[in-house]
Specification:
By secondary structure, this protein is of the alpha+beta class. The protein has a single domain (about 5-110), classed as NE0471 N-terminal domain-like (2-Layer Sandwich), CATH 3.30.2020.30. It has 4 helices and 6 strands, in the order E-E-E-H-H-E-E-E-H-H. The strands form 2 sheets. Strands 1-2-3 form a 3-stranded antiparallel sheet. It has a 3-stranded antiparallel sheet with strand order 4-5-6. The longest helix has 14 residues, at about 100-110.
């Protein structure tokens, strides 16, 4: 079975949401903040387990540009200067499918580190 591939990608800059539809019928609305704090880049993920860097203060981040990477991914260029994450179709699909639990995990890690999101 092949991995789901996107059929549509739309950036809603005013609401700071990336909407992505896949060929299996799934459709996800992924906030730019969520995509930024879960960037697959080494800058965010580190080079191995336990090296992750908690991203704070990204509530108002937006995507400035979406750049295709071959036929398997996109590079998202954020307005805070971050542009090194390559988001494969599989990564975007997993971020969409597990959005609720990943977001709650992020909020818990923020709280544990003593940070609060700005409203």
């Amino acid at each position: 079975m092949s991995e789901p591939r996107p059929t549509e990608i739309n950036l809603h800059q005013k609401s700071r949401v990336l909407e992505i539809a896949f060929d299996d019928g799934s459709r996800f609305r992924l906030p730019c903040e969520y995509l930024r704090v879960y960037s697959p880049s080494a800058e965010v993920r580190g080079h191995g387990p336990g090296e992750e860097v908690l991203q704070v203060g990204k509530e108002n981040v937006n995507i400035q540009q979406i750049e295709p990477v071959g036929s398997y991914a996109v590079a998202l260029h954020f307005d805070d200067g971050h542009n090194t994450g390559i988001y494969s179709w599989d990564t975007l699909y997993k971020l969409g499918a597990h959005q609720d639990e990943l977001w709650q995990d992020y909020l818990a890690r923020l709280a544990k580190a003593g940070h609060k999101r700005k409203a």
